[in-house]
Amino acid sequence: MATMSRLSTPSPTAHASSTFKSGSSQPKILIGFYSGNNFNAKVSSSKLAVRGNHARSGPLVVRCSQVDGNGIPAKRTVLHDLYEKEGQSPWYDNLCRPVTDLLPLIASGVRGVTSNPAIFQKAISSSNAYNDQFRELVQSGKGIEAAYWELVVKDIQDACKLFEPIYDQTDGGDGYVSVEVSPRLADDTKGTVEAAKWLYKVVDRRNVYIKIPATAACVPSIKDVISLGISVNVTLIFSLSRYEAVIDAYLDGLEASGLSDLSRVTSVASFFVSRVDTLVDKKLEKIGSPVALDLRGKAAVAQAALAYKLYQKKFSGPRWEALVKKGAKKQRLLWASTSVKNPAYSDTLYVAPLIGPDTVSTMPDQALQAFIDHGAVSRTIDSNVSEAEGIYTALEKLGIDWNDVGSQLELEGVDSFKKSFDSLLDTLQEKANSLKLVSL
After folding, report:
1. Is 349 contained in some domain?
2. What residues contact residue 261 under an 8 Å CB cut-off, 6+ apart?
3. What's the chain look like in SS3?
4. What is the pLDDT of residue 31?
5. How many folded domains does the chain comprise?
6. Domain with 173 in it
7. Choosing a second label site near 153 at 20 to 30 A (CA), which of 6, 26, 146, 328?
8. CATH code of residue 313
9. What is the reported pLDDT for 76?
10. Three-state SS across 312-354?
11. 211, 223, 314, 329: which one is catalytic?
12. 70: burial class by Cβ within 10 Å (0-12, 13-18, 19+)?
């Protein structure tokens, strides 16, 4: 088993492996390289590009081209091992039209999708795929923000349909698609509850997760929304203290629901990873001592390991067992922000050391393709908890205040999503104006 020490220490990106070799005896998903005008856009428009030492000419795509003796596309990758052997669900952190682009990813082992305002800002503003629906909405009298939500809801509904088989096969354990309430509501407890209720109603899919940020104002919202029987993806968690509050809100919501069967109310807690290192590394470089510099790239994984320890503690004991008797399911930890921001670090730094049962890893293109290409599957999240505790404490001794780190990252995260949301609305208004359809 790989140790946390080896996995958490930044290292140059490894060279691409030959994991996927063609051969009739063991057909697999092929990872192919194509020039921009030589591949089928229906399959490859997601352009799973790998940066750093894995750069290639042309976009990298996943294509289900090999078939077995019955002509059925082969569907075996390391992502299947991740789920089947270690109990971790790989999800895809992206969504755009056409949602059928998700099909080869589902075949490769992806088991769910996460989205956020930044993802939709990029998808809608950079694609013509939304133009026809947008034109119809505006011509029918819809305002810009109302039109935005209809565009989003359609994508979420269509994606939910694709993941329904996984949802059914796992009895509601997996196969979810997440959609976030307006980031403008991050400081509005009641507004967030109402927005979550509205989104849940209009999406009208069993396997939708309503995303709510883990701000101080929205933690009570999580309890209220869970108590209504609505499944929630709690996002923007950056510290252990806030994570514990999120768990308590989930438990409080289950207890307040009054439901005799809790099996259909589920949740994930999205614990952000790479952004922690981005901020803490800057603080360590400012300190500049050999001890501080040696801790660069280790804070995020260490804190995540301690989050998993907290998860194990909170979802055990009499209180939890009483809820289990009513069918309650654990609020799984979801590792978010898994892309590597520092090119000097391994491109699987925020995936490989965080493998463990009852968890989810949601990966954007870069991290997903890197792990498919050369990721190793073994339980790593709790392989060396004592080392994680040592790193966490050592950072505190250097003056790193974990709660301050969490608060700053939360503010930055909320602000980033608000800017993406506002920017997209501006883009849609400009598009409407250019079509001479509406003006404010």
Report:
1. yes
2. 326, 327
3. CCCHHHHHCCCCCCCCCCCCCCCCCCCCCEEEECCCCCCCHHHHCCCCCCCHHHCCCCCEEEECCCECCCCCECCCCHHHHHHHHHCEEEEECCCCCCHHHHHHHHHCCCCCECCCHHHHHHHHHCCCCCHHHHHHHHHCCCCHHHHHHHHHHHHHHHHHHHHHHHHHHCCCCCCCEEEECCHHHCCCHHHHHHHHHHHHHHHCCCCEEEEEECCCCCHHHHHHHHHCCCCEEEEEECCHHHHHHHHHHHHHHHHHCCCCCCCCCCEEEEEECHHHHHHHHHHHHHHCCHHHHHCCCCHHHHHHHHHHHHHHHHCCCHHHHHHHCCCCCCCEEEEECCCCCCCCCCCCCCCHHHCCCCEEEEECHHHHHHHHHHCCCCCCCCCCHHHHHHHHHHHHHCCCCHHHHHHHHHHHHHHHHHHHHHHHHHHHHHHHHHCCCCCC
4. 35
5. 1
6. 4-16+76-434
7. 328
8. 3.20.20.70
9. 87
10. HHHCCCHHHHHHHCCCCCCCEEEEECCCCCCCCCCCCCCCHHH
11. 211
12. exposed
- Burial class of residue 357 (count of CB atoms within 10 Å of its CB; 0-12, 13-18, 19+): middle
Residue 40 included in any domain = no
Q: What integer pLDDT is reported at residue 320 of this predicted model?
A: 98
Sign, CA dihedral 389-391-393-396, equals negative
Residue 41 lies in a domain: no
| Alpha-carbon radius of gyration of the chain | 22
Whether 108 is in a domain gets the answer yes
223 assigned to active site: no
